[in-house]
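Our consortium's second objective concerns turning raw sequence data into structural hypotheses that experimental partners can test. To show how far this objective has progressed, the report includes one record in full. It was chosen at random from the queue rather than selected for favorable results. The single chain below, 284 residues long, was entered without modification.
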Amino acid sequence: MPTLNLETMRCELDGHLARLRLNRPEALNAANWAWVQDLVTATDYLARNVETRVVIVSGEGRAFCSGLDTKELSEGHLTVDWFATWERGVLALANLNAITIAAIHGYCLGGGLQVTLACDLRIATTDAVLSIPAVREGLVAALGPMRLTRLIGAGPAKQLCLLGHRFSAQQGLNLGLINEVVAPGELEDRALALAQELLAIPFTALLHTKRQIDAAFDKDPATLMTEMIAAEADCLRSPEHLAAMAAYREELARREWGSRGAAPGGVSGVSPDLPSSSPPEVAR
């Protein structure tokens, strides 16, 4: 399995699935300067691997990421360049040509939450603790407030960002920030199951859909329309779409034969989970 080992992170490639593991467990995966630089390196590595279609982002040890390293804060090591490099890495994660899943457990605070906001989907354990407390440290949470607003709306985002209170995974689910909450022992299996479900969906359509959603707040409807037409043309040419339509035609043929009392090959009836009285399912 191709692997990129960095000081604070590890990337693993396994066919179309990649893992980005935050790997500074002795500090609850807190972000120091090496961590920030590693995020840029890791996302560049993932972006260059054209085979990657789904990425699971997770934290080693007892936490996903506890935010900025308190030593960096207290010793005054934070600079404008520090934050610019940070945002380069987070933006690269958000812009990957892959579907990204954040698998959250333990502390997911500040910068940790910002990383998850750059992911497409978020699964959290019942014991996860989340917050975005930058204002309490006299800072702006980079572009985290903007991403949070796009995800859950201005009102809830202001409550979380202006007060910096901690909240649970269930509260995050209620806000629409978290997509799914699972028991601590089920996080790995659920993240992998979701990844496999995504890998079974035509990737060309997935990627164009992700791009359209991400651009929803940036572009006018006319531009989105032009890009949508180009995206649909790309989807219609894709082998995944052609295979899906071939399977659809095959199922229609089975139904037609079933309505006559015999299926192709001499087998009577139709598939038990597809009754002939129901209309064919059309993917949207």
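The partners drew two points from this record. Residues 3-199 form a domain with the 2-enoyl-CoA Hydratase; Chain A, domain 1 fold (CATH 3.90.226.10). The chain is about 45% helix and 15% strand. Both points have been shared with the crystallography group to help prioritize constructs.
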